[in-house]
Amino acid sequence: MAGVVQSVQALASSLAALPPEFVRPEHERPRATTFLGASPLQIPVVDMSLPDAGCRMVEAATEWGIFQAVNHGVPADAVVELQRVGQEFFALPQEEKQRYAMDPASGKTEGYGSTVQRSPGDKKMWSDFLFHNVSPPAAVNHGFWPDKPRGYRQANEAYCGHMRRLTREVLERLSAGLGLEEGAMAEAFGGGEDGLVLMQKVNFYPPCPQPELALGFAPHTDLCALTVLVANGVPGLQVSKDGLWCDVEHVPGALIVNVGDQIEILSNGRYRAALHRATVSKEKTRMSWPVFVHPRREYIVAPHPRLVAGEIPAKYDYKAKTFEDYTYCKINKLPQ
Ligand SMILES: O=C(O)CCC(=O)C(=O)O
Ligand SMILES: [Fe+2]
């Protein structure tokens, strides 16, 4: 672990105006581009306790690539505890957080950090993060898990157990929706029990002096298979639908599930990865806790063979690229 993180949190406390490296060009600014119709489009809500939950999920993954899951079986206190330890971590003195600094030169994504400007025209995002693997045990490096606040590890391990169960359920339903066996997606991505890698991230978006000019997170699709996210109740997540940016109106207690690149590709485009971004606020700190579900590193990025048989051609061809290489290219903005 090396390097000093230039955190937005430290910067935010001393600013009246937004520094130029955060100022977005006109066509990316949130106010000018957010859809404000009389009846704003809303992402689907899926009640996971109902018999039609599978159909609803499949519909949502086809139309939107994102949905809010309610009655998902993750106990509220597990979420509250995860949020508490994340909030307390970001409230620690800067030097304490620096102990976990991510080293951008290492090529690894784990650790505490903030976006770096790769070129002068590249805009920074108004957010900091903490990022580390949580499952399976062989993928976990506790050196990136803060030892303060107390209970950090227990909270993350407990939440991760729920995420594993929920992920399995969503993957089963989405597999069935493609006419595959329930276990087909997990098998393809993970090659069996414990093959899937879960990463926990904490995003921290401090109050921003000029939120109308900045973005907390630039538009992107997640490079993983699936993301399950919970936020702290402050609005900010937006999803692009038919060319319009729509605010996600978070249903209290819901978990936001979104399809990443790997499910879009594996499904040969029948499911779509959600294009999303995050806006920031002038007065409030926003936080979010996404869990990214990754295939194993050596997974070959390609449509499922059963979905390209016969008349249907493969819509994606990454020339036998591994997930590890796909990740490297996407993070470094290289052509795939
Ligand atoms: O904070 C959010 O709602 C979105 C964060 C996000 O998209 C990400 O970390 O990939
Ligand atoms: Fe994302």
UniProtKB/TrEMBL annotation:
SUPFAM superfamilies: Clavaminate synthase-like. GO terms for biological process: flavonoid biosynthetic process; pigment biosynthetic process. It comes from the Eukaryota. The keyword Metal-binding applies. It is an enzyme of class 1 (oxidoreductase). Keywords: Dioxygenase, Flavonoid biosynthesis, Iron, Metal-binding, Oxidoreductase, Vitamin C. It catalyses: a (2R,3S,4S)-leucoanthocyanidin + 2-oxoglutarate + O2 = a 4-H-anthocyanidin with a 3-hydroxy group + succinate + CO2 + 2 H2O. Belongs to the iron/ascorbate-dependent oxidoreductase family. This is anthocyanidin synthase. The lineage of its organism: Eukaryota, Viridiplantae, Streptophyta, Embryophyta, Tracheophyta.
